[in-house]
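Q: Can I see a sequence and its folded structure?
A: Here is a first one.
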Amino acid sequence: MPSARAGWPVLAALLILLTGSAGAGDPPLVLEATIPLPDVGGRIDHMAVDLAHDRLFVAELGNGTVDSIDITSRKRSSRITGLKEPQGIGYLPARDLIVVANAGDGSVRLYTATTLAQAGTVDLGEDADNVRVDATTGQVLVGYGAGGIAVIDPARPAKIADVALPAHPEGFHYDAATGRLYVNVPDRRQIDVLDRKTGQRVAAWSPPEMRSNFPMALDAAAGRVAIGYRNPARLTELSTADGAVTGSIPTCGDTDDIFFDAVRSRYYVSCGEGAVDVIDRTPEGLVHHDRIRTVSGARTSLFVPELDRLFVAARAGWFGGDATILVFRPTP
């Protein structure tokens, strides 16, 4: 007899199709597929993509695993096990390496993506979190601990530098053109701006009455950095020149990822309440385009411009059912 769990991906897709868009007209995101993640329990964190080999890597924090997903066949192809709360993840195409940051033991582990053989470990002590890859140098940036961003040389592998922060960093981005790091520091209710070369803080921005700033998106071309706040739930856009607020708008609750779609001039805000908010940047300011229903707890996502797809991670249901990756196609 088929189990209830086996039917969860179909049920989740049906529910989203039926309840889908909270607005009128054609939705800005269309559910194209669901990719089942069998035997994945607990919270799912961040994702990374290997474009050359059509692979999606998923950090499954509550399960202690990373799954490698074949995007074309929409199936899991392999798995890394034995991890300690993996949350941040990155991919280095020049070396075919997966970088996994673990909250549980503070380690950053490197794996050859093709074989999933371990290629090294860098111990950061505690709470290794978000991962960013500096495409200009091939170095890896990892937020960690009570306040720092480690600079890792994957060739050794080893930590070669540290950027100090006043508290634990959450979402951050690096603008290679200006050499600046923009870092969410929610325990201080601020966004720190740092000079990557000197490690010195050049500014700290704190929009009033805003707390719990976790995700961030950077539109370097337009000179804008977007911050996702949880209390109150808002997307706030700042000028990278001076931190001036250029727009602010309410969003769905419990956001953990934000991405900017430069082609359509819109933001995708994924939220744990079970929605993705689509927000347009217009000459008149930020405008709420639509709210796309997902699944409760599906707060992490990855927008891949090269594929023109938004991947949303939906954890397993409380009463059974597989975790899934929801694949959305933006329109028009």
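Q: Show me another, different protein.
A: A second, unrelated one:
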Amino acid sequence: MRWPDGARVRVAVGLFAVLFAMPVVAGSVHRAVSLGYAQQYDSAWATLARVSERDTLAPLVAFWRAALVQMLLYDSGDPALADSFHRTSDRALAACRERLRTHPDDARAHLLFGLTQLNRANCQGWQRSRLRAVMTLNSASRSLGRAVALDSTLADGWFGLAAIEYVRVNADRYALGLGLLGSRKRAYRMIARSLDGEGWLANAAGFMLAYMHKEDGEFEQAVEVCERILRQYPENRTGLRLLRDTYLAAGRWEDALQVAGRLDSSITRDFPGNRYGRSENRLVAMKAWDGLGLQDSALAYADRIIAWSRYERQVPWLDRYVAEARQYRRRCER
């Protein structure tokens, strides 16, 4: 087939534009991701907003826009952002479907579809829609499995599969009676394979590994992973929460209180109205003071949580924290 000269020029220019844009976009996305982990959300969003969404790049950009909204949702504790996350993740899924419509074996499109579904399942769990979360996880598992079958070097695919595998191992913690089958050893093999590669979600994989170690009572390993990530992002509140919770689970009460103090200052500075994050932090402080045998200090924190009971309908998970604080007070009064 002989193409007209003008068509050849347009095709050549188009291919050059896409090939030139890919490293530029990748660099912009890397900067946005790094800014997100540094909790500079406005700058991260502005960086992504300047990125052009071409056909091959639309799923990547759309995925990270949704992921940034989710980071802010959990960090701020503002439930109104849940709707924004679901809308932006809908757009990410649509971008992946459009790519897969014309390129059904695009491993990265399958990957991003699966990771978006994994994030949606996580958010559904946070919203306490547990059965919906499990159903969404199943969809994520299929897409991620397809992605690594097409390209076994996709580190982020192994991270996603490891997270799902570990949830299945501990399914009854999240939705009683599901009886899902999972392998703890397989989850660790998958997360190791993820961390051996070069994925966009290396820090998320690190947090997942630390969480797994904490849940399995391997506290020194969990602390080591948290501290490694916090050396790069010292104010990252996800890392600080995980480190705090690890110290609490390990019975390192004073260390847990020290990190809880850092968290409270950080949350109050950046999100002074965040009763979700602060009430959770106060619950940890209550337990740590109790572990030290200082019941009066523990009760003071319990009472601070109970004082926010009138906000239970507006603040995610606050009803659970208030109930636990009240239960602790009743136990002390016996």
